[in-house]
Write a structure and sequence with these properties.
With about 425 residues, the protein is an alpha+beta fold. The chain has 12 helices and 16 strands. Helix 10 crosses helix 12. The chain binds zinc ion (ZN).
Length: about 425
């Protein structure tokens, strides 16, 4: 995709309305609000339904043609003066249990603001424009994460997604029906042509803030590997059982926590590794655990390194299990190869941020995003704005209003160029 430098849309760029934008962020953040700040809208809960209803209402007020598909993704489309596949903006509005009001929500509300600004200024683009929010991006209730975009794009079968059982025992299909978001629009790339996809998102990491930079031109997304391990040992008295006779499931979990930290340090580069969930049974002060359930999250921008980290983890766990005399099984909860965004899209974000007078740098994303799934079907780019303290998935998540405005203006310009030019 080449930039057409002779085509300037500057004269036709309408102003966005910061009050409206922030009002919407606060209004959506008020649904499922936690005492003391932050928000909990796990996918397909009543709170998620209320959030969806609000955004749907905004889409309808904008006169968008709204389609809800069979996995509950919602796409609102604004017609262009010519037909064809839309330039799509979007993200997700589900949150983790202790989420902030910006993660995901910003990309959706920014998309609506872009459309509203165009409406206010009476600008009709050549290509249609669309704003989407994808079901269950977070994966906090149902694994895998990015479920809605995966089904939208076609690499996850609808039936399989609908049958997914969540942490509370319910299935995606049941919950979609219950909240009234099991739509009838078809899923899969063939039924959903997209000209290009652009997602504005908070960085969720510390890089932009630490370097005093306003805009991130995202080059790609780290590969992600989530594995759940179940360890079965033998419960026994913590006082009478000699150490050499123990089959301690908890020990395996503890050793793995240490091991993955050392592994990440040894592999270096972008490698990160986390044991984020751990459950011991019977979980009593004087009983050797006979059961440990824990997860390992491995990430790297380099696919070979990511595979190496997985292989070394599995080998270590096997060795450890045999030494301790416990059984270990594991299953993959999610697995995504690293993604590189379309170079032309990265260039465009960087160039426009410069043109608008913002500081900008290229960087990879440490978190998974719907954009990495959309990248399989169309040229895709992401715009990052700073996260204060690098904090996200946390009620203290915050991005300064002026940085949000900068991000939305970059989004607006990128989308206008994509919608008006031939490339
Ligand atoms: Zn997100």
């Amino acid at each position: 995709m080449k930039r057409t430098d002779d085509f300037s849309v500057t004269a036709a760029v309408p102003p966005i309305n910061p009050e409206r934008l922030h009002g919407r962020l606060q209004a959506l953040g008020g649904i499922g609000a936690l005492e003391g700040g932050g928000v909990c809208r796990l996918a397909l809960t009543d709170a998620d339904r209320a959030g969806r209803d609000l955004v749907l209402d905004w889409m309808q007020q904008l006169g968008l043609e709204v389609r809800i598909d069979a996995i509950g993704n919602v796409v609102g489309t604004r017609a262009g003066s010519e037909g064809g596949a839309p330039v799509m903006m979007g993200s997700h509005i589900d949150t983790v249990r202790t989420g902030g009001i910006y993660d995901g929500n910003l990309g959706v509300i920014a998309g609506l603001e872009v459309l509203q600004a165009l409406d206010d200024a009476g600008v009709r683009t050549r290509r249609p424009l669309a704003v989407a929010f994808f079901t269950n991006e977070e994966g906090a209730r149902f694994a895998p994460d990015m479920m809605g975009s995966l089904v939208f794009q076609g690499d996850l079968a609808l039936d399989q997604a609908l049958a997914t059982r969540g942490i509370d025992g319910s299935t995606v299909g049941e919950e979609l029906e219950r909240i009234g978001y099991a739509g009838d629009a078809p899923v899969g790339a063939a039924a959903n042509p997209v000209h290009a996809y652009v997602e504005l998102h908070i960085e969720q990491g510390p890089v932009l803030e630490a370097e005093g930079i306003t805009i991130g031109a995202v080059e790609g997304v780290q590969g992600i590997s989530w594995t759940e391990f179940t360890v079965t040992g033998t419960s026994n008295h913590a006082g009478t059982t000699p150490i050499r006779l123990r089959h301690d499931a908890g020990l395996v979990a503890g050793c793995v926590i240490r091991f993955v930290r050392d592994l990440a340090l040894e592999l270096g580069g972008d490698q990160v590794a986390t044991v984020g969930s751990l459950e011991l049974r019977p979980n009593l002060v004087n009983v050797i655990p006979n059961h440990a359930l824990f997860t390992v999250d491995l990430r790297n921008t380099d696919g070979d390194r990511l595979r190496e980290s997985e292989q070394r983890l599995f080998a270590y766990v096997r060795e450890l299990a045999s030494a301790e005399g416990v059984e270990v099984s594991h299953r993959s909860l999610a697995r995504f190869e690293p993604v590189r965004f379309h170079p032309g899209m990265v260039d465009r974000v960087e160039h426009i941020a410069h043109e608008l007078g913002h500081s900008v740098r290229r960087l990879p994303s440490g978190a998974g995003h719907d954009a990495q799934i959309l990248a399989r079907m169309c040229p895709t780019g992401m715009i990052f704005v700073p996260s204060a303290g690098g904090i996200s998935h946390n009620v203290r998540e915050f991005t300064r209003p002026e940085e949000i405005i900068a991000g939305v203006n970059v989004l607006l310009r990128v989308v206008l160029e994509l919608a008006q030019t031939d490339d």
